Amino acid sequence: METITIKDIARALNLSTSTVSRALRNSYEINTETKKLVMEYAEKMNYRPNPIALSLRDSKSKSIGVIIPEIANNFFSQLINGIESIAYNLGYHVVIFQSHESYEREVANTNYLVSRKVDGLLVSLSSLTTNLHHFEELMEKGLPIVFFDRVPNEIETHKVVADNFFGSYEATEHLIKTGRKRIAHITSPIYLSITTERLAGYKKALEDYGIAFDESYVKYCHHGGKLASENEAAMQELLDMAEPPDAIFPASDRLTTGCLAVLQKNNIRIPDDMAIVGFTNIGVAELLNPPLTAVVQPAMEMGQQAVELLIKLIEHPKKTIEYETKSFRTSLMIRESSTGKVHA
């Protein structure tokens, strides 16, 4: 099968090669209709840019580094699908590293990607990252970085997040409306952006419905759910309270599965004895017994938005930029884990 070139696309669409080239690079100089026409035709004809030629021409590697806490997480795997779907069509390769919730590993990953001359980084912070010097130094040297999901307040750049406050508020409100009064929240370290935002939504829902906030019903897992023993210990502490919770709202995939394991081990019936709502994109939520009520984030769209913002920074470094924080609305998928009988 012959390889299609920019000249072939230009000839077929009756456009100049420079217009096609700029459209494929998502240049702001080309109008939306022309970009759409070129992109759709390029996809249909299976056009793929030559990365070596692009690198020689632009003095760029045409590669993007992505650092995430873990790939074995449905939310992050969906994000990566979104990132790759845009990057590939724009001629960029994606190099993915996992921090495994380790600050040291995150720094090592960053240094390696920079040594391989990536054109920019997409980063979701590890649960143990409190020092941002490795990113600040690179940005001062001109490396484009966009943060997503777990983002730092201290660094000024583009950020892509879910509306964590809304998602958490909606989950807590749902539990209150099903008759639950003692709602516990198991979450990540307090200094993570997702932790503070989800905790704020949880607190606000309690306040709006006249339920006093009780700090003893909130448990922080320092490793963000990665250590099963830490998750299980937090859940067991809640069950051992004089007045144990009648509902649990874990703030991530791993925390949710940890809670479910402890509830099963203690023969606690869901939702009769304990309702549960996860903040999770876990793929098997509706296959669990009972099916899990969950706050779902539009991960694919978040990944697409993050890489689009990064490529704009890479390709138009001298253009005056007003940095944006793009927030995506979550949705609550109500299933049987939260809708059963309430005991007085």
UniProtKB/TrEMBL annotation:
<dbReference type="Pfam" id="PF00356">
    <property type="entry name" value="LacI"/>
</dbReference>
<dbReference type="Pfam" id="PF13377">
    <property type="entry name" value="Peripla_BP_3"/>
</dbReference>
<dbReference type="GO" id="GO:0003700">
    <property type="term" value="F:DNA-binding transcription factor activity"/>
</dbReference>
<keyword id="KW-0805">Transcription regulation</keyword>
<keyword id="KW-0238">DNA-binding</keyword>
<dbReference type="InterPro" id="IPR010982">
    <property type="entry name" value="Lambda_DNA-bd_dom_sf"/>
</dbReference>
<dbReference type="InterPro" id="IPR028082">
    <property type="entry name" value="Peripla_BP_I"/>
</dbReference>
<protein>
    <submittedName>
        <fullName>LacI family transcriptional regulator</fullName>
    </submittedName>
</protein>
<dbReference type="InterPro" id="IPR000843">
    <property type="entry name" value="HTH_LacI"/>
</dbReference>
<dbReference type="GO" id="GO:0000976">
    <property type="term" value="F:transcription cis-regulatory region binding"/>
</dbReference>
<keyword id="KW-0804">Transcription</keyword>
<feature type="domain" description="HTH lacI-type">
    <location>
        <begin position="4"/>
        <end position="58"/>
    </location>
</feature>
<dbReference type="InterPro" id="IPR046335">
    <property type="entry name" value="LacI/GalR-like_sensor"/>
</dbReference>
